[in-house]
TrEMBL record:
The lineage of its organism: Bacteria, Bacillati, Actinomycetota, Actinomycetes, Pseudonocardiales. It comes from the Bacteria. The keyword DNA-binding applies. Keywords: DNA-binding. GO terms for molecular function: DNA-binding transcription factor activity; transcription cis-regulatory region binding. This is HTH tetR-type domain-containing protein. It comes from Pseudonocardia hydrocarbonoxydans. SUPFAM superfamilies: Homeodomain-like. Pfam families: TetR_N (PF00440).
């Protein structure tokens, strides 16, 4: 006969506990905003409320950690690297746009839930070394997706990557797109084919 469970959370290393608390907090912030209580967070994480403050000095520090985790590009870059290179270029780019849009939708949703209009200044400021490095990493990842099809482009892969990211951002941001977001295929079609009829360029 199995012994009854104590209901106590298993002991985790500090970094693992921190990550678990951040993971449990993110969906609650998206649903309830920054006013979500630490009691509710503790319940979702399966820990005592005091455990939160043994990891984070205050609730604001936990919110900053949640925001930093949502902005971390690592998972998105790994997804881009995993896109099947045997697919045609158009299909590879559609897959990349879907990955980028998923990231941006999550980031925009979190910022909106926190009542923020832009990422926090610490680490995401435009021109900040970390921000520049992240942009470079995304451009490199998208340029790498072009691969041997670079010869079919009129511009270098890095320029295509830059324009693609601009289209994805503006076509996904709820305020910029006026509530009519662009789909992944629509973005890629605009990028590769433009908006004029084939064989009938505008004057």
């Amino acid at each position: 006969m199995n012994s009854p469970r104590s209901g106590r959370a298993r002991r985790l290393a500090p970094d693992a506990r921190r990550a678990a608390l951040v993971e449990a907090t993110l969906p609650l912030v998206l649903r309830h905003g920054a006013t979500v209580s630490t009691r509710r967070i503790a319940e979702a994480a399966g820990v005592a409320e005091g455990t939160i403050f043994s990891v984070f000095p205050h609730k604001e520090a936990l919110m900053r950690a949640v925001t930093a985790a949502a902005l971390d590009p690592g998972a998105t870059l790994r997804e881009l690297a995993a896109v099947d290179r045997s697919l045609p270029l158009r299909a590879r780019l559609v897959a990349a746009v879907e990955i980028l849009q998923s990231r941006l939708t999550g980031v925009f949703g979190l910022l909106d839930a926190l009542g923020m209009h832009r990422p926090p200044d610490d680490g995401e400021r435009c021109g900040h070394p970390e921000h520049t490095s992240m942009n470079d990493a995304f451009r490199a990842a998208l340029a790498d997706l072009v691969g041997p099809d670079a010869a079919s482009l009129r511009v270098p892969p890095q320029e295509l990557a830059h324009v693609l990211r601009l289209l994805v951002f503006s076509g996904t941001h709820p305020r910029i797109c006026d509530g009519s977001p662009l789909g992944a295929e629509q973005i890629v079609t605009t990028l590769l084919d433009g908006l004029s009829h084939p064989g009938n360029p505008p004057c």
